[in-house]
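Re: export button greyed out
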Amino acid sequence: MTREIEKKLRDAVRELLEKGTIDRIVGYEAGSLKFSTTPLITSNKADVDRLVINPFTHSNLSVFLRDLCGKVGIVAKGCDARSIISLIQDRQIARKDVFVIGAPCGGVIDLAKVEKLTGLDRDEVDDIVWQGEKAAITFAGSTQKFSAKEVLADSCLGCDPSDFKECDMLIGEIEPIVGGKELGQDRIREMEAMAPAQRWEFWKKEFSRCIRCYGCRQVCPACFCDRCFVEETEPRWISPLPKWQDNLIFQVVRMMHVAGRCTNCGECERICPANIPLGSLTKKMEEIVDELFQYRAGTDKDAPPLMAAYQPDELEDLMR
Amino acid sequence: MNNSEPKIVAFCCNWCSYAGADLAGTSRMQYPANLRIIRVMCSGRVNPVFVLKALRVGADGVLVLGCHPGDCHYLTGNYRTRRRLSITMKFMEYMGIEPERIQVSWCSASEGSRFAEVVTEVTADLKRISPNRLFND
Amino acid sequence: MKKIKKQSIPELLEKWQKEFAVFVPSKASGVSQMEVWDGQDTAFLNRNRNTAVPPKEKFLPGMEKMFGFRKEEGSYVVEPTDGEPPKQLLFGIHPCDARAIGIIDMVFKDAYDDKYYLSRRENTVLVGMACTSPYDSCFCTSLGFGPADAMDVDIMLIDIGDAFLIEEVTEKGRGILAGAKGVIEATEKDEKEAAAARESANAKVSRKIDTAEISRRLPLVFNDREFWEEVSAKCVSCGICTFLCPTCYCFDINDEMLQDGSGARYRNWDCCSFAIYTRMPAENPREEKWRRVRQKVYHKYLFYPELFNVIACTGCGRCIRQCPVNWDITQTLSNLPAGSPGKAEEKKKAS
Ligand code: SF4
Ligand code: SF4
Ligand code: SF4
Ligand code: SF4
Ligand code: FES
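Workaround output, generated via the alternate export path:
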């Protein structure tokens, strides 16, 4: 089934390149590690046969769009498609310069979850395949089945198939994955069950591990500033030293900046080398934005960006 | 533990709230002396990072004051700051900061008494909670 | 040769704790790194996978105070940081990371006396643990050593089931073993098992690069912009590969000021993947990403060998497995165009 979709994708992209509809393609190819893919950015037709679609297409490729010139074809999962729309809303890319190839991903598998379930590192797991509704994971000499909920990335739980907007082409069928908005919110509720002081202690501990690699910012399509506030020196808003206090402020301010842009693609959390649960923050921000403004990032290319809009009579109950 | 003398950083816009503060002062209205006022041209200038930085360097609370909705001298500055800071307040609560520490209000140039009132209330709020030790090691 | 039963290790660690801060591989903090041994944990004796954060931070902390200063009568008084760093013992360091410390030594110890680094380095004992299960991203065997080699450590332990075979490498190492309980003579069988363990670990490292060919080709492709643009396209310019690299040592210096004019000078990790790393008022020689990616490869594989006669990469594989986009240095190195840029061009056009 996957093979079929891959063939369809490759044929389509080849044709688009041949016809000159697009100048280059941003997609996924097999990565160099087990269960990995890696971005494939090419204008060469010969590379098209390397394109893949599988449950390990983790990257949000829209992060590359601003830097690529010409008309760019991009293989987009649901959350990536929304990031693209968000970039158009923010005038970071022009609608006419992208050709969106929607690739219903069926959900990507969260390898960190797999590692927890198996107690092994990802390279020690033998195989992961979908068998109907279940993921069959082979490890330590036997195969066990896990429900989609257990292995899918949090961002995929509650992913909405109607997110595939602005697709110029669709490869395969859009199917709801594991629906339900409430899914993926468990961790927010858990956090809120703690007393405020406890929550602060929790985040203090988490951010004391941050090494300020800025990976979270770099993989994030919503973090598109040419000069990030952390790099400003006159005045210097936060210390460049990885002190937990400044690490925390960095991330909190980053969250403010991506509010209404963040699509909860989950990339920042996935790649954080310090394993800081950034998804809890992005998810909470999504919820706040929904609650206060009934706004969902990246669903309407013609809508003004959330922070550039206002209603004269909103939010007064929050003011003193 | 309560905080007998909280330090409050207030961002006041030049046209309304700062003038309001001035009026409160010249009309000798009583309000707590806990305020450190920073004048900004418009409340719309207030970036969430200002608020966090104030807390980081030891303010017990931050108060942002602007013109009443509809009265901003740059037309929409306070609408924008309202969105931005509403999110900041909600989000910081999730992080574990007491909601008393970040507050936003409106005050016109003629509302000296309202200025004194808001400052009194915010000070009372902050007296109820403990001093800001959030960013202590 | 000697050996020690695994069950005797906790007692040995306790003994060492009297003299040293003892660090072991641990996930207790939420990420796998060297942590102070809690007196209980023994998981690392059996499940021996290298840490995500390399032990270099025990010598080059992510943030380090260099000295304090305060204003006095119109001038500044420098207040040196007090005392020597505590004595530390790193238990279970892998050969690649020990090698990396040997490599960093060349900069901070041989080429220049960096007192901050040196005082930590001299106060440290390295107890190596041979790797039994390399990652699929490891390629140490291509860099002149193997996952069970005892280089740059004070003693080396090789897992032989319920015990470790001990290789005493330095005087320091011999010293800390003196009088240790549970250390007994190894049998011939033990030594055979250790040799087999070494063999099998070596065999598990399947990723390979050809360093001779790389050193031949690298000097020729510096100006092959097209190649570097192509390989760098997917890099997102974060600091992960640098900060987690056991041999990357670049640092930045920052002063933290207090209101009264006193303050402290710190150094913290820096990274050549950041565009800001080389940003200057007038220009930035490495504004474009391909120049930064090229720099990373050149520094490790060409400039360092020219200066110190050793490649500044130990094949630990962290930059491959932790990279957000799976940018793989071994692929880039293996795909270096052969010959001069001109020739590479021609070859490309022909194919
Ligand atoms: S990716 Fe993680 S460690 Fe790196 S800067 Fe972001 S939060 Fe910190
Ligand atoms: S954190 Fe904010 S300033 Fe920095 S890149 Fe992201 S959006 Fe821009
Ligand atoms: S903040 Fe994180 S989850 Fe949100 S768009 Fe950016 S990378 Fe994705
Ligand atoms: S190679 Fe990977 S880890 Fe290194 S800077 Fe590029 S994206 Fe980040
Ligand atoms: S000028 Fe007062 S809020 Fe804009």
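The pocket of iron/sulfur cluster (ligand 3) is lined by residues A 60, 219-222, 258, 262-268, 282 (CB under 6 Å). The button fix ships in the next patch.
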